[in-house]
Amino acid sequence: MGEYGDFDGLREPAAKVFACQVGQLPKPDGPRGVHVWVQGVVVRVNPYDQFSGLVVDDGTGLVVANGLNVVVKESTFRMGQYVMVVGHLTGTQLSDFGEDVHSVDVTKVTDLSSEPRNEALWPLEVMDIQTQLGGDDEEFEVEN
Questions:
Q1: Model pTM?
Q2: Interatomic CA distance for residues 77 and 89, integer angstroms
Q3: Is residue 54 packed enough to be buried (19+ CB in 10 Å), middle (13-18) or exposed (0-12)?
Q4: Which residues of 116-140 are buried (b: 16+ CB within 10 A; e: fewer)?
Q5: Strand pairing category for 82-94 and 35-45
Q6: Cβ partners under 8 Å of residue 108, min gap 6
Q7: How distant is the alpha carbon of residue 104 from its chain centre?
Q8: Secondary structure percentages of the chain, helix, strand, coil, to 5
Q9: What local confidence, expressed as pLDDT, does residue 72 receive?
């Protein structure tokens, strides 16, 4: 356990990415997965335990957000909400939709539905930060 207890992973900045780019990120040296930030619409809430996971669609792909019970006391997430998910990439899993999706252990999740501009501006924010950081167009391609 580090200087910040179990919260060492929160010190690193999260990579703002599209869901289709999550698997293209370089793997970290440490035991935790890459710290990612994605935003999208909730398309599935785990029907058996709504604290354990959401499936989020950002228009380029799906991400499963696991471990909500660690960061929220009461889950009120529902289908159609626009949410921000920040967490550590843990791998891939098969979704109910029959495709492999990346799974993230959540460190933060927030409902952004109350401000409609968030959804419209997110793609521009991701492209802007990747351009500013000198992202190689070939390294981070958005799949159609």
A1: 0.78
A2: 21
A3: buried
A4: eebbeebeeebeeebeeeebeeeeb
A5: antiparallel
A6: 71, 84, 85, 86, 87
A7: 6
A8: 20, 35, 45
A9: 76
